[in-house]
Amino acid sequence: MNKVVTFISEQSYEPINRSIYVELLSIGIISRVWVPHDSLKVINEKKVYSVNGISVSKYHPRKYFIPMSKELKFDLKKSSSIVIEGDIASLVIMQLVLYKLIHLKNTNIFVSTFENIEKNYSKIALQFLLKFDIVKFIIFITLHILTKINSRFIDGLFVYSEESRVIHERRFKNLQIYKLPLGINENLFNKGNVRRSINTIAYLGRVVEFKRPHLVLDIYLNVSKKNKNLKLIMQSPKKYENEYSFNLYNKILELSDCNITLVDPTHEEMPGVLQLVDLVIVPSAQNNYFKEQYGRIVVEAKLSGCIVLVSNSGALPEVLMNDKLVVRSDDLEEWEKSVKSLLALNEDMLETISLQLRNSSSKNQTIKVQAYCLSKVV
Question: Which of these, 76, 87, 158, 280, could form a disulfide with 112 (CB 3.0-4.6 Å)?
């Protein structure tokens, strides 16, 4: 029987995650992918099919069902396994669970999730009820019901960090949890030389406050006072329509005498940008509302030969695989000290770090490793 991945993405994840499934298609681990229709233009793969009428810019799997076209039903009925990416408390998952119970007696359904913050929807619902906020009470009690129903009937859950595995095993005691690496295309990113000096540092990621790109800018401004030739490459804040990105963009524009380059690379352009970078800084915050679920840029940078410095937010230390390059997220003084320490290292020491980081990703965090782990389950 064919293996089918039904892939419905929230807007914030497109199109990067889809490239993973294109790679899995190319090596034969899966044979079908269904995606929101306007994302076909970024995939261009003959085995990727459109969920007609669903726009990726408007779709959210918690809020909508997917249209069950004849073609989709045909694929589902001949499938041995279906993998759905999204939160377990989703209408789409409930829809496919019900469809399985009626039509797909021998098909397994797996859910793939990056979530690593423990959520108690019934407790949150009660809090809103006590505040007489009936609308939010109904929303969260519905999420609680969806979680109960879906977890009862799916066959397994894929997670991507140890932290996520522990949370979900505690939350779903009778559900099989599988931890997978989030594979990166090694052929695309493994093209850079090892680094023997640090001439360019970079922040490459979303320009939002909890990602803290302003911290990288502040570090650069302080460190470059003694390292006049140091360059900074930053994700451009221009397209991010929030007050934080607006203020950061204006601050950068005022620094006309600094060697700062703003970029906005696509996923396909990212390998070329990383070839210009020696040190990638990922300073994400960690609090009750946010922590990093994975940190794809960490693996991409490692495979490209970059040295990487991360905060202790969520899965970042696990993904980096080098405790000496982890900085406490709220210790601003330690961030600057850590960057200065790396700048002071000699060529041989930097080369050793660069090789260690690259090798750890080549061995553990590539498409082939993910495909192998996935093939043992589906």
Answer: 158
Residue 324 identity (one-letter amino acid): K
Tokens describing residue 318: 């696990």
| Amino acid 57: pLDDT | 42
In the chain, the N- to C-terminal Cα span, in Å, equals 11
Which amino acid is it at 168?
A: H
Claim: this prediction has a pTM higher than 0.70: yes
Q: How confident is the model at residue 5 (pLDDT cuts 50, 70, 90)?
A: low
Average pLDDT, the chain: 84
pLDDT in tens, 338-353: 999 999 999 999 999 9
Angle between helices 347-364 and 296-303 (to 10 degrees): 120
Domains delineated in the chain: 2-179 (3.40.50.11930), 186-364 (3.40.50.2000)
pLDDT-wise least confident of 61-70, 145-154, 178-187, 335-344: 61-70
For residue 250, the tally of other CB atoms under 10 A from its CB is: 10
12, exposed or middle or buried, with CB in 10 Å at 0-12, 13-18, 19+? exposed
Q: Between helices 367-375 and 16-26, what is the axis angle to 10°?
A: 70
pLDDT tens-digit map of 193-237: 899 999 999 999 999 999 999 999 999 999 999 988 999 999 999
Which of left, alpha, beta for 282 (phi over 0: left; psi -120 to 50: alpha)? beta
The length of the chain in residues reads: 378
**CA–CA distance from 306 to each of 2, 188, 193, 275, 313 (Å)?**
39, 15, 8, 8, 20
Compute how many other C-beta atoms are within 10 angstroms of the C-beta atom of residue 6.
24
Q: Quick check: 367 and 186 in contact, CB under 8 A?
A: yes
Question: How many other C-beta atoms lie within 10 A of the C-beta of residue 269?
Answer: 11
Contact 184, 366 (CB under 8 A): yes
Strand partners, 309: 281
Q: Rounded to whole angstroms, how far apart are CA atoms 143 and 149?
A: 10
